[in-house]
Amino acid sequence: SEALVLEGIEKGYNRGKPSEVVVLRGASLTVARGEVVALVAPSGAGKSTLLHIAGLLDVADRGRVVHAEREMAGLSDNARTAARRADVGFIYQFHHLLPEFSALENVVLPQLANGVAKAVAVARGMALLERVGVAARAGHRPAALSGGEQQRVAFCRALANGPKLLLADEPTGNLDPGTSETVFAALMELVRETGLSALIATHNMELAGRMDRIVRLDQGRVVA
Ligand code: ADP
Ligand code: ADP
């Protein structure tokens, strides 16, 4: 069964204005349950737009978005936000951790917001940090961590509430090649262990080649 289906997605900005830009022109793709798909495209091709639509942060002009057989079109704003929080974990090129909180707190806070009891949230947070090898840094603020450590903490935060679908936009794009390699390996291990389905945008063909499948975004459409 499919974790994610995008069908005929069309999206433009500034519609009807001289500055109109049409980004997606009928993009379709699926991510099967447990599958890790690489999304490869030149910069500006619409990867972020596609990921935001898949993750319910943005709404397509046309087309279908389906999460685990549940149709997302026509949901109210509140229902869409609830579905996003329940279904999706996001990772970006930059970690976006809260600077005034520790690494552990950054992984605990989204769980508290989701109604998880504090002791449970702390235990799960520590377990996640351990799995990616940054448990020893749990009490440090993001600024005290290396770029690779910051990104590992961001992975843990994205998985804190047990999403079914991981959407990542250049998750190692800000790291030097050596760090990128080890951080990517940690991410893939975490994804495989948790049986997550993932759509991971990258420019790095070597990393893309280690995912289950590669799709390309070309002229607003997805090609295999
Ligand atoms: P990518 O992630 O592949 O670099 P994006 O999805 O960020 O591509 O952007 C695709 C195109 O849409 C670019 O030309 C970008 O300038 C344009 N774009 C993105 N967001 C907006 C916006 N909010 N308003 C207008 N144009 C936008
Ligand atoms: P909200 O800001 O609506 O409360 P959540 O706290 O539920 O959103 O965030 C869920 C996920 O969506 C987080 O991983 C967060 O980084 C991401 N996210 C929320 N809003 C945006 C946005 N405007 N742009 C990019 N990512 C966002």
TrEMBL record:
Belongs to the ABC transporter superfamily. It comes from Paragemmobacter straminiformis. SMART domains: AAA. This is ABC transporter ATP-binding protein. GO terms for biological process: lipoprotein localization to outer membrane; protein localization to outer membrane. GO terms for molecular function: ATP binding; ATP hydrolysis activity; transmembrane transporter activity. One of its GO terms (cellular component) is plasma membrane. InterPro entries: AAA+_ATPase, ABC_transporter-like_ATP-bd, ABC_transporter-like_CS, ABC_transpr_LolD-like, MacB-like_ATP-bd, P-loop_NTPase.
